[in-house]
Amino acid sequence: MDNFNKLRQAFIDALGLTEDTDFATVKYSEIDEWDSIAHMALVAQLDDTFDIMLDTEDIIEISSLDKAVEVLSKYGVHFE
Question: 67 lies in which domain range?
Answer without folding.
Answer: 3-18+27-73
